[in-house]
Amino acid sequence: MASDNLAATSVTRLPTREELGFDPEALREKYRIERDKRLRTEGNEQYQEVGGDFSRYLDDPYSPPLKNREPLNDEVDVIIVGGGFGGLICGARFREIGIQRIRIIEEAGDVGGTWYWNRYPGAACDTEAYIYLPLCEELGYIPKTKYAFAPEILGHAQRIAKHFNLYDGMCLQTHVTGMRWDEADQRWRVTTNRGDHMRSRFVIMSNGPLNRPKLPGIPGIRSYKGHTFHTSRWDYDYTGGSSEGGLNKLADKRVAIIGTGATAVQCVPHLGAGAKELFVFQRTPSSVDVRDNRRTDLEWAASLHQGWQRERMENFNTLTSGGVVEKDLIQDGWTEIIRNLVSMAKFRGTGVDWGDVPKLMEIADFQKMNQIRARVDSIVQDQATAEALKPWYRQFCKRPCFHDEYLQTFNRPNVHLIDTNGQGVDRITETSVIANGIEYPVDCIVFATGFEVGTSWTRRSGYDVEGRNGQTIGNKWADGIRTLHGYMTHGFPNLFIVGNSQSAATTNFPHAMDESARHFQYLIKQCLDDGISCLEPSKDAEDAWVDHIISISRFNEVFLNDCTPGYYNNEGKPNRRSIQNGAYGKGPNPFFRITKAWREGGSMEGMLKG
After folding, report:
1. pLDDT in tens, 197-243
2. Class for the domain spanning 1-67+214-292+332-450
3. Which fold has domain 80-212+454-542+587-609?
4. What is the pTM of this model?
């Protein structure tokens, strides 16, 4: 009989095909075939920049245009570019050390970042809300459900801004057009599209990794004469309804949705319920496991002790980094995946040769993905549709999804899965989407194609940064990002970066953001306390960190090369630049230990002080 959990046995050798109940070599070959049919020579260039006929996808449909205001010509202590969770957490941590003159510059009509833009029906976090929503304990707030929906998340962002007085001096619907270090007065000079000329001692760039919509480069995409919109700019005037669903204006509409990633998994059930006909165009299916959302237990909430959120965050992060805890406080799909698939701890003391650990992890991965595929069979009634919805790749080649209604939607008679066998849509005409040589006339196309990842930082941000001696970040990072700890870059004093390149990447993004904010808080406080006018990494320290990032990332190269194409592996073309721009390869906990030890060292090793 096949073993469901290798952790439950004292394994001293690799299990046989007979013991497993499947052939690992056959699965490897299946995965390879499915990967190869999706490889595209153009890699990330298969997507096109939003502009021209689609420039409206960059507009803000959620807030009325702000009235013209007088341009600002003043000085603050800290400018934060970006009003998402990263910028808000930084603002909160800076308030804790008494910084008063904080200015957030945000392109949208309010704070929230990704959660300002993502208002599509069904949008919700896929990480437990009790750890995903930052600063809950500081604000005395408990999320309503285990996985919060978008309106509550946006409301929480607004709550943070109000609690820490971050709306004071905030510039909304404002886009940074330039940023230049003035050596003479040791200040950053920041210009905007509203004629502002601001000065600041410190600048935080929290532009966010998911802020610029992308479109597929499908031939004829600009010729379509029907209605279109991107999921990050949902058109409720056309669909009717709200983020809770009820898309009643689609009752007589034939709708196409292109893209089957995490966004589509959440909005397809609502489109299927509302549209006359829904055509879901799929290149690669997502891995979709049980979600099991539920309302917060009020008795449990009342029992929480001081420090509960950080304890819970660290518990989750330890588990999802392959560590060991006494108790899994989260108990959801993420911790179940890692506990059974990634944690090497379960192999300790079993007598297994450490050289076999990757093979055992792969087997555990095969077992879990077999469960995912079996779940498809148990839910989807049409056999051909079920077969097409099965993911054939390792669990973390793409971000795992969790939902209790997505697969069930394909049992609706008005919902049609158009599987393209890994090739994508052929082309788009004035009236139709063509795939597999078949024309599908539709009234509306919804692009669930996500945000730009892997393009240049300056393209995604929309401006460049000029540091010492006229050097720009665009030029410096042309061949790959160069930083110390992912947080600062040589030649750009007092400039701090929120992101996951060359720093920690966690499933729970706000946790890493908070660690970044605490690090910046320490650095800025040192500057204020010790009279340091400017701070930047030395070139030697930066070079050493970049070399370290590349060396440890090689552990993941084989895995990424074998993965089906996606943004994790630069659309199937991992290279030195994509590896260099990646996260810290040993995981978030080792990274957090490095930065904590660095702070506790007290000397700010590798930093140049002015």
Report:
1. 999 999 999 987 555 677 888 999 999 999 999 999 999 999 999 99
2. alpha beta
3. FAD/NAD(P)-binding domain (3.50.50)
4. 0.91
